[in-house]
Design a protein that fits this description.
By secondary structure, this protein is an alpha+beta fold. The protein folds into three domains: 215 residues, 3-Layer(bba) Sandwich (FAD/NAD(P)-binding domain); 95 residues, Alpha-Beta Plaits (2-Layer Sandwich), CATH 3.30.70; 53 residues, no CATH class. Helix content is 36%, strand content 26%. The protein has twelve helices and 21 strands. β20 and β21 form a beta hairpin. α1 runs parallel beside α8. The longest helix is centred in the last third of the chain and has 30 residues. The chain is globular, with a radius of gyration of 21 Å.
Length: 406
């Protein structure tokens, strides 16, 4: 028996474990994988990620391996370009190119140094329920026997298609958007050294993030076709077309990007996950809460995945410490939902609005032209997308009217 079991040792789980262990709680961190590991990821983090890493205390260990980027160049299917530069009251902010292998390793080391116990290679099969309350998890040892682990609180941080989210939170893919995520690294890919790039095509989009040492992370979110074999929960995904050919077919409007990729060296196979979007109606309940992608994910276009995992860990730790102190589960549920609503609700609505523009090329062209002409509107939108400005501002009717008027 311990205070908290955290299932999943990625950024959300490791950061949550570090916060709780540092507060003096006994924390068991379990993951089905061994570490260090590689993970398909765009490796692009919004500017507000750096302050969160500083608050966690892990920034000094990461700083030398991070590439700061001035912003994102968005290219529409017709070739219209818009530079989303991060400015905060005239002060320049930077997004981050973060190698996931390094980030995951350092976050995990930080959690262990704070006092969390790590059990890798231990896949969780199911939660243990007692009178409707989660009191632990059942995990499968390498010898295939089942081990029961008990705790006062179980935190699910086991990512997209989370087993705990499916059982406890009702997690499932939404009807829209339905995309496959692909990621790899290229060497010698020419492009602007201090900018990320996002190319929107007829069947998805592709992002580039230069990460130093001559490497560039290339990540794409591409529409899943009817011929792709998949289960509703996204497991056992079988692709009808190879990732490289799928990328070419999705971006015929950008031959210059495809030519750049052809001239560069892809140093590893594509890694993928899909469908990307993940809806979770219930993020907390008696004895459990969910954090990171396990608590829901929409689409990576706006680039807040790592930030959301780390900021969500702060919120999860705050809510967890409250219930561990007073045992009031109803207060935990309402408090955690309120914290997440304040932190993420407007950004979620903004991400959905952005997807409407991305899915309609003429509308995207129209908006990018006007953002280029109206820098004050562009600055507010970039601040919202960078997670350091209010995400509700671009959603206001007055803002949209000024953006969309001729």
């Amino acid at each position: 028996m311990c205070d908290v079991i955290v299932v999943g040792a990625g950024p959300a789980g490791a950061a949550t474990a570090a916060h709780l262990a540092r507060a003096g709680r006994s924390v068991l961190l379990v993951d089905k994988a061994g570490f260090p590991r590689d993970k398909p990821c765009a490796e692009y983090a919004s500017p507000e990620t750096e302050p969160v890493l500083r608050r966690l205390g892990v920034w000094p260990a990461l700083e030398t391996g991070v590439r700061r980027l001035r912003g994102m160049v968005i290219v529409s299917p017709s070739g219209q370009r818009f530079r989303s530069e991060y400015l905060d009251a005239g002060r320049r902010r930077f997004s981050l190119a973060l190698p996931r292998r390094t980030v995951d390793d350092q976050l995990l080391r930080h959690a262990i140094s704070a006092g969390a116990e790590l059990r890798p290679g231990l896949p969780v099969e199911a939660p243990i329920l007692d009178g409707g309350r989660v009191v632990g998890v059942r995990a499968r040892r390498p010898d295939r026997t089942i081990e029961e682990l008990r705790a006062r609180l179980v935190i699910g941080a086991d990512g997209l298609r989370s087993r705990l989210a499916r059982v406890l939170g009702g997690g499932r893919p939404p009807r829209w958007p339905h995309r496959l995520g692909l990621a790899t690294h290229y060497r010698g890919l020419d492009g602007p050294p201090d900018w990320g790039e996002m190319y929107v095509g007829s069947a998805g989009y592709c992002g580039l993030a230069p990460s130093g040492d001559g490497l560039t992370t290339v990540a794409a979110a591409l529409s899943l076709g009817r011929a792709d074999g998949r289960r509703r929960d996204g497991r056992a995904l079988r692709l009808s077309v190879s990732p490289s050919l799928r990328l070419v077919r999705a971006l015929p409007e950008h031959p210059e990007l495809l030519a750049r990729l052809a001239r560069a060296e892809r140093i590893e196979p594509f890694r993928g996950v899909g469908p990307l979007a993940w809806r979770v109606p219930r993020v907390a309940g008696p004895g459990f809460l969910l954090v990171g992608d396990a608590a829901g994910f929409f689409d990576p276009f706006t680039g807040e995945g790592i930030f959301r995992a780390l900021r969500g860990a702060e919120l999860a730790a705050e809510a967890a410490l409250g219930v561990l102190d007073d045992g009031d589960w109803s207060a935990l549920i309402s408090r955690y939902r309120q914290l997440r609503r304040v932190a993420f609700a407007d950004k979620e609505r903004l991400a959905r609005m952005v997807q409407v523009f991305v899915s309609c090329p003429p509308l995207l062209d129209y908006a990018l032209v006007r953002l280029e002409r109206r820098p004050e509107l562009a600055e507010r939108l970039s601040a919202a997308l960078g997670d350091f400005g209010p995400a509700g501002t671009p959603l206001r009717p007055a803002y949209l009217a000024r953006l969309l008027r001729p």
